């Protein structure tokens, strides 16, 4: 029987774990080569996002703003958006412009579509410049929702044209919780099956923290415009995380491409079934290299089963990430003390027996007592510190541990890494 | 509380035509990538370091969610100020209004967290949907015993600087002067605009202690609400950073008669000059003499400690990109290490700070006009400095240029103020400039190919 647990209801959020949807949209935009991200809002909106993402990824975040001021609160920001797109195009020469709205502009109801077409009429030289519009009102959802919406807009706007099917090509839609290194691992796994992956968005070559030859104020690395246009040539598509299902379904609706939603890629059962599916699509047996990784994972589980069993773990994350890590922990015998999601999840997606609730880090604080481990973003240090509970950093922001964007927690190898991180965090505390 | 913008004296600071001057009253252009911040941010920066107060942001998640507990303003005691508290407005609130929710939130926060005061910040969305935060605060005040203070600086009001000023008005009208101190200390002073970033304040206090000067309150760094209430009984205000609070000190002078001086505690020269000015202004002959002696001792000691760094750093060239008092004070501080400033720029300073920077710099030095990422990259490529001194948001872009970098803004973890801070600063500059990694970054691999 499902019994989502009850937590204290308040009129405020205390130590929120949510980030703004526009921040999530920015991450998605950062996975597209040559893109200039433009936030339609006041200057603080974009500054907070740049700072938050910079301290997590240790990377500059090319995010521009339409810099709204008082007069726009009266007259609307429509004109600013028109000017902002044109100015960004002229000054930064991007291949694509990715726009997202904010609470401010959604409240006064700026029509972004008409602003764009008016701009194109005035500036015929920019008529062909690809511009993607995403509506991310700050008061609806969190990081995950914004990321999902921006990915959907990219697909909707740029993958429209029908192209001939390419054998062995698949489309992948990684979730907002995938690190750049996770995305890279995913691509490598597909290559082992002889499959070519078109990944939208692909942060593995843009936010991976590499030393560019020529730093630039637009996104460097990520999926190219041409590759996004080739997505309709895929023979199959995979989306990762429940929230990304709508993106895969959209592709199916547009181009009739078979789509599979993969809830998680952390945990042995989940990875098993994904690899079996890849084997089926590619017509290749599961590569021995991956089977070797599986065998190592099994050995690890045997070696450490006792340290994992019946450990009480409190987790606070965005819902896709939450489901991925809690299912893996349950699989190895740990108990979930509480699973706090940043935003609501349809009841059918909540696993049997998972003590699920929507909450913030103040709720975590109220519930964490007696836990052996907390898994949450760096801000949960305000909980873990005073309670003296070991704290494994996950989610966003993580600013006080090195190498987080380079961490792989998917596939057999990644699951093993996650288990090691859980064990090491508990022992070194 | 609503602040009449005309009272903030914005106009009189606007006539600067200089290239690269901060455009305080000029609108940032959409899409140009000016990378400044908003009034809400500026208002919160000033009040947030009141550490025993609760700070509630009345807005959607973007205003608090992306940014809580992200500044390095440190506390020696209470940690309540670091808590992220927001009404987290949702769609229904936007449609039906969020005033009632806010009143409830204030009452709940007061009950749960036992703050000494509660600050409530308006944001773009709450202002736009017509929520009257003053009314919500008054309603809550009926049930809450500690002061509930509304801060009306929604983001669209302007940039960071304007928000600073709004907070100055709030302090003046609702907090300062509300309580009398137990004793009348002859050498009681306030710091205005010292945020105790990375513990900067604790680098200055040893000098004040040694001289018998009492810091009545720091507005606001490691601050307690009750101390700020007594700030009107100081004999002198020392405006440390952020000229945006000039209004506050001028009005405190009018109201309570205390004079003010401006100063900086970055670098040996500025630290000594500020201490000297404090003593002069307090006017006690014995204090003045003690101060001179203290300065002499400390300068000698500090110069000895930084000498080995200075010898190695002399002749190096830097690009400086910051805001507030650091705009000019850092020019002097870098000079003390023998480092010349090739180019300087600012996003958030007042025109006065900007002019002071310009006056201190070598006439051949460049003023950074385009403060966007694009402008910054062009400048670095052209100047090829040995060192970039700037804020955290420039850090990772600077690293891409393979240039040594020092963070001097609110995200840093080391204190640079006072004599002690100067040593820490010299060590930090030396560490980055002479780090062996830069050479590796510039080597091409495989040999003869392009650098990777």
Automatic annotation (TrEMBL), chain B:
<comment type="pathway">
    <text>Cofactor biosynthesis; Fe-Mo cofactor biosynthesis.</text>
</comment>
<dbReference type="InterPro" id="IPR049939">
    <property type="entry name" value="NifE-like"/>
</dbReference>
<dbReference type="Pfam" id="PF00148">
    <property type="entry name" value="Oxidored_nitro"/>
</dbReference>
<protein>
    <recommendedName>
        <fullName>Nitrogenase iron-molybdenum cofactor biosynthesis protein NifE</fullName>
    </recommendedName>
</protein>
<dbReference type="GO" id="GO:0016163">
    <property type="term" value="F:nitrogenase activity"/>
</dbReference>
<dbReference type="InterPro" id="IPR000318">
    <property type="entry name" value="Nase_comp1_CS"/>
</dbReference>
<dbReference type="InterPro" id="IPR000510">
    <property type="entry name" value="Nase/OxRdtase_comp1"/>
</dbReference>
<comment type="function">
    <text>This protein may play a role in the biosynthesis of the prosthetic group of nitrogenase (FeMo cofactor).</text>
</comment>
<dbReference type="InterPro" id="IPR005973">
    <property type="entry name" value="NifE"/>
</dbReference>
<keyword id="KW-0535">Nitrogen fixation</keyword>
<comment type="similarity">
    <text>Belongs to the NifD/NifK/NifE/NifN family.</text>
</comment>
<feature type="domain" description="Nitrogenase/oxidoreductase component 1">
    <location>
        <begin position="38"/>
        <end position="433"/>
    </location>
</feature>
<dbReference type="GO" id="GO:0065003">
    <property type="term" value="P:protein-containing complex assembly"/>
</dbReference>
């Amino acid at each position: 029987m499902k019994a989502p647990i009850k937590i204290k209801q308040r009129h405020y959020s205390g130590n929120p774990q949510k980030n703004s949807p526009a921040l999530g949209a920015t991450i998605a935009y950062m996975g597209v080569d040559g893109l200039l991200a433009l936030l339609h809002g006041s200057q603080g909106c974009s500054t907070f996002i740049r700072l938050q993402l910079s301290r997590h990824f240790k990377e500059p975040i090319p995010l521009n703003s339409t810099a709204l001021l008082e007069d726009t609160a009266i007259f609307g920001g429509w004109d600013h958006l028109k000017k902002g797109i044109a100015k960004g195009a002229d000054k930064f020469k991007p291949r694509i412009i990715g726009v997202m709205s904010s609470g401010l502009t959604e409240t006064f109801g700026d029509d972004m579509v008409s602003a764009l077409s008016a701009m194109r009429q005035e500036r015929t030289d920019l008529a062909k410049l690809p511009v993607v519009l995403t509506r991310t009102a700050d008061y609806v959802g969190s990081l995950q929702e914004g990321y999902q919406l921006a990915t959907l807009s990219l697909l909707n706007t740029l993958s429209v044209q029908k192209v001939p099917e390419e054998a062995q090509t698949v489309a992948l839609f990684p979730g907002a919780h995938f690190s750049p290194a996770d995305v890279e691992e995913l691509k490598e796994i597909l290559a082992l099956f002889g499959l070519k992956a078109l990944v939208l968005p692909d942060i593995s070559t843009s936010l991976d923290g590499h030393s560019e030859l020529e730093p630039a104020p637009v996104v460097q690395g990520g999926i190219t415009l041409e590759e996004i246009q080739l997505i309709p040539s895929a023979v199959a598509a995979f989306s990762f995380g429940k929230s990304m299902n709508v993106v895969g379904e959209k592709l199916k609706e547009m181009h009739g491409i078979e789509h599979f939603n993969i809830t998680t890629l952390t945990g042995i059962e989940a990875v098993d079934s994904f690899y079996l599916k890849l084997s089926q699509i590619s017509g290749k047996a599961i590569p021995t290299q991956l089977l070797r990784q599986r065998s190592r994972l099994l050995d690890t589980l045997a070696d450490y089963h006792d340290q994992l069993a019946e450990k009480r773990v409190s987790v606070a994350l965005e819902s896709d990430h939450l489901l991925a890590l809690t299912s893996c922990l349950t699989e190895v015998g740990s108990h979930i003390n509480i699973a706090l999601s940043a935003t609501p999840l349809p009841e059918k997606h909540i696993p049997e027996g998972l003590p699920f609730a929507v909450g913030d880090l103040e709720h975590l604080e109220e519930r964490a007592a007696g836990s052996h481990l907390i898994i949450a973003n760096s801000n949960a240090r305000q909980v873990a510190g005073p309670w003296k509970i070991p704290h494994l950093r996950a989610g966003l922001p993580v600013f006080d541990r090195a190498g987080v964007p380079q961490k792989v927690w998917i596939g057999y190898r990644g699951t093993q890494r996650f288990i090691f991180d859980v064990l090491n965090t508990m022992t070194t505390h | 509380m609503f602040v009449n913008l005309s009272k903030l004296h914005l106009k009189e600071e606007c006539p600067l035509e200089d290239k690269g001057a901060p455009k305080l009253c000029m609108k940032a252009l959409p899409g140009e990538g000016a990378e400044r911040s908003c009034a809400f941010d500026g208002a919160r920066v000033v009040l947030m370091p009141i550490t025993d107060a609760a700070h509630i942001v009345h807005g959607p998640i973007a205003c608090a969610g992306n940014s809580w507990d992200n500044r390095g303003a440190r506390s020696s005691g209470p940690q309540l100020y670091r808590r992220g508290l927001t009404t987290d407005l949702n769609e229904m609130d936007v449609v039906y209004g969020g005033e009632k929710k806010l009143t409830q939130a204030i009452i709940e926060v007061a009950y749960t967290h036992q703050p000494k005061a509660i600050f409530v910040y308006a944001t773009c969305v709450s202002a736009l949907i017509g929520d009257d935060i003053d009314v919500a605060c008054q309603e809550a005040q009926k049930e809450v015993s500690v002061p509930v203070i509304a801060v009306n600086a929604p983001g669209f009001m302007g940039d960071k600087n304007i928000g600073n000023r709004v907070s100055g008005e709030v302090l003046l009208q609702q907090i300062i002067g509300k309580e009398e101190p137990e004793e009348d200390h002859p050498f009681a002073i306030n710091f205005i605009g010292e945020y105790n970033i990375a513990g900067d304040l604790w680098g200055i206090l040893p000098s004040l202690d040694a001289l018998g000067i009492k810091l009545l309150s720091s507005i606001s760094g490691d601050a307690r609400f009750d101390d700020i209430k007594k700030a009107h009984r100081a004999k002198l205000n020392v405006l440390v950073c952020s000229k945006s609070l000039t209004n506050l000190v001028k009005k405190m002078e009018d109201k309570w008669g205390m004079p003010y001086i401006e100063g900086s505690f970055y670098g040996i020269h500025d630290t000594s000059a500020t201490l000297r000015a404090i003593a002069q202004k307090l006017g006690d002959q014995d204090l003045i003499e003690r101060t001179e002696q203290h300065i002499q001792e400390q300068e000698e000691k500090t110069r000895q400690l930084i000498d080995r760094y200075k010898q190695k750093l002399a002749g190096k060239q830097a690009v400086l990109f910051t805001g507030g008092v650091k705009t000019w004070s850092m020019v002097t501080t870098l000079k003390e290490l023998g480092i010349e400033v090739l180019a300087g720029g600012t996003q958030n300073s007042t025109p006065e700070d900007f002019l002071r920077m310009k006056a201190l710099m070598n006439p051949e030095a460049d003023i950074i006009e385009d403060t966007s990422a694009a402008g910054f990259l062009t400048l670095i490529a052209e100047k090829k400095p040995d060192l970039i001194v700037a804020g955290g948001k420039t850090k990772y872009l600077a690293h891409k240029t393979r240039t040594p970098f020092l963070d001097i803004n609110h995200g840093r973890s080391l204190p640079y103020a006072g004599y002690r801070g100067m040593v820490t600063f010299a060590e930090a500059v030396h560490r980055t400039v002479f780090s062996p990694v830069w050479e590796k970054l510039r080597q091409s691999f495989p040999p003869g190919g392009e650098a990777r």
